[in-house]
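Help wanted!
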Amino acid sequence: MDASRRNKLLIGLGVVGAILIGKLFYIQIVDDRYKRDASNNSMVYETIYPTRGVIYDRNGKIIVGNKIAYDILVTPREVRPFDTLALAAALEVDPLFIREKMKEYERSRSRIGYQSVVMLKQISPERYMKFAELKYLFPGFEGQVRSIRDYPVNAGGNLLGYVSEVDADYIKRHEGQYRPGDYAGKTGIEAAREQDLRGEKGYHIYLRDSRNRIQTAYMDGAMDKDAVPGNDIVTTIDADLQQYGQELMRNKVGSVVAIEPSTGEILAMISSPGIDVAMLADIGQHYNEIASDPYKPMFNRTVQASYPPGSVFKLVNGLIGLQEGVLRPEMTYPCNNGYAYSSNRKLGCHTHRSPLNLKEAIMMSCNGYFCYVLRSILENKKYKSTAEAFDKWREYVTSFGLGNKLGSDFPSELGGNVPTSKYYDKIYGKNGWRFPTIVSLSIGQGEMGVTPLQIANLCATVANRGYYYIPHIVKDSENVRIDDRFREKKYTLVDTTEFYKVIDGMYLAVNGGAGSGGTAVSAAVPGLDICGKTGTAQNPRGADNSVFICFAPKDNPKIAIAAYIENAGFGATWACPIASLLVEKYLTGTIREERKYVEQRVLDGDLMSRVKTD
Amino acid sequence: MYNSPQRTLKQSIDWKLVICYLVLVLIGWVNIYAASHAAEGTAMLDFSVRSGKQFVWILSSLGLAALILFVFNPRLWEVISVPTYLLVLVLLVAVIVLGVEVKGSRSWFALGPVRFQPAEISKIATSLVLAAVMSRPGFKLTKKMDLLKVAATVGLPMLIILAESETGSALVYLGFVFVLYREGLSGWFLVAIGAAVLLFILTLTASPYASVLTLIGMTGLFYYAHTGKLRRWPWMEGLAIVFLAFLPKLLALFTTLAPMTALAGICILMLLWLAWKALRTRDNALWLTIAAFVVGIALIFSTDFIFNNVLQDHQRKRIEVLLGLKEDPAGVGYNVNQSMIAIGSGGLFGKGFLHGTQTAYGFVPEQSTDFIFCTVGEEWGFFGCLVVILLYIFMISRIIIDAEHCRESYTRIYGYCVASLIFMHLFINIGMTIGLVPVIGIPLPFLSYGGSSLWAFTILLFIFLALYRQERKYF
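Answered by r_m:
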């Protein structure tokens, strides 16, 4: 090839080089627009923060709204000598605080430059008005409106969650979505629906002159962007029920979860002790106080605490036995204050008449009976080994939503634990374990853990006679759609017909009448047809946990509820009245006169001293 | 033939290129330090910051360069070119599935803390294979089969990279057209690409009507230039275009006919007449002209479609900002605006090392990677920019001249590939920082922060130096 093509390419290279250099010459030397821009920093963007979406309860009551607060901004370069005492009085702060702050700005003046920094956060409009009257005396100090959260109902900090300023780590995890100074929901509903609630920021653009004074709106505001407010959220929570539950749970450690069985909607979700909503709006100020509380109010027990389910788990074992054909409702087993699972060891039971059939065993919560049930499941000849029968059992148990996360829309949900045969193989060796080894699973003790949400869901499953909807806290609305998985029935592996046999026992446990031996007769409310099951779960740290699940009415249940109270003793003593009061309140709107004393006893009860803290 | 004595090591290496490389790398390092200094406020060799890390990249690059120059047999590259190329294709596809997402494109592999982009190696592999394919005996770009082979070699990685939404890296592959031109591709290809870009821009900024007029003018020029009667163009067609330019006004005076409809009618009549003429005189150039016109029309009327449907949102915005169709000082326009302010404020001699305010205080995004040239422009001024651009031009032209001196076509073609790739990066990257080219995120060779890119360009350049050294040793 001749050299002319090389030359043409070289000339082309030269031309492109000349174009680049020419343009550089133009912007660096000829045109001084860019120099002026640089010394001015040209445009100033003022962020307009959107108002967060409002959170409603299922009846249209606002549970989280917004209110106005002010931040006090300082532009250190513009501050002239001022009367510190007067400013301190206007802002209602300690003069030392202001001196301290001014010193700090002086130290980092090169970093701050012409920018403004926040000196005081979220002061109330009343306080701000005092300052605003005297503002002219303090050049460089400015108020900035901000919308903060307002909580008209005490629906519990763990449920609602808090909103706080994003930190570096959070910004990194949500790349490109947040900038320093933005707020985001960190826990609870605020976090679960952050994307809907947050809205979109807007900005004003101003031009700045060489002395850093804002001159005009850039292009008369044509390039400004309005903030888009966040979407409102309708939750499935019943604010009255939630608030009543909070009151009942005062001075007790534990959880209450209520679900509407026909939809899977969570009606109330109480973790006690919780964060008081009064602290939520400005969580930063109270953070240390909350974090150092020995009862761990930040810990959301409803979805994160894994407890042994206790006797309420007998329902599951009974249902599995029925489905597997190894248990028939009329079968009776003896119980002589317990079940002897080896020559010298016995799993104890309370005193009741013997023998019992299934209905009575549920009603009186007989431990012995359910040892026989689990034994017949695990020693079923259908299966080659205990391990195989156990895996089948586990398959049934997980179909009730236990052992795995339910997949609710509430954040940081945990899945609890249901052991596998491999787990026991590892401990005892293959074929090194038999039914007696794991006898405590018969009554919901031993190596298993479930969350209160899962227990409530179990109750809803029984109420529905065999299926559940994944529990959720956000209702479908025009602006905020919910996932299709919340509309799907999840069937257990147990047939619907089997559930009726168990529910009969639950009905009697509550409505058997005094002296019948029913464990939950104190929960009975005439006309409501409550069906329930008590539980008393061992707690290695002190007194037993008190458990109660119930649903009502028996036909077409409207509410299924689980109460789990730590270190409160028998299920009947605390969990049972709390759950039944909530059911009564939800279904009738009031508490009957003859049950007022129950309510009073619960409200007065203080079990905090029984709970061990470390 | 082998009568000249073997040259010594010292003589056989093109030291001027090596020095040029070293100077550029050093300039890059100094500016990376300046760009990250204010934010991090640390020493140049602090390994937790970018300048310290870049130092490690530079040292390892020098090691790589030495290996390539002194240890590996230069024949190696030709031998491994095909397997490497195939491996790279696999990696390019794999990264779409297995890669991590960085700024909207899936083109990075993450191996623990180390991330690398297969697109970087793909440039080297494509160059090596292209040189191997084109240096086969009997290869001629005029043969259809050979042209197809070349198109596949370059097109395949380019398309996969496009699928990774790394439009910038894919665009760089267009640079191989210069290599093809050098090896005998018709110059009209370059003209056609240029014309297509012009029509695209014209349709977006002015109107399709103006584009059609321009197309008529360009195809006419093509025909007359081809037949050697360029002097007749102004009389034959120039006047017609002037008339057509005023047609919309005339039409508006007398009729309600849309100018575009009238123009379409005129064009169809003209085309029919020209086709008839071409058929009668068997004028191939005329047929080609008609074909070019039809293709051009198709491009003009698909511009809107391409612009609105094929391009991604952010790409469309960048082009709109560049062409001044939309102002967006807070969004896309922000980068360009801030980058031009930074460079423009540098003046003749700049603000001095570490005295830049715009780049140092984070007004310019990506300042140590894609926008490193801003720091050069702000702190070293027009003078510094001039030096950097002249260094690049020296490097590229030096590679071209060296390549032309080679007797083996393999080395020559590879050399042209290297020159073209550096050129494309240079033009797109600097063009973007000064508002000549839409914002396309590709690094400035040797200057930008990042090991992946520095290694790739070092390997690319030093393979050429090694090949060239072998030529000098024996010829």
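OP: Thanks! One thing I noticed: The longest helix of chain A spans residues 3-30.
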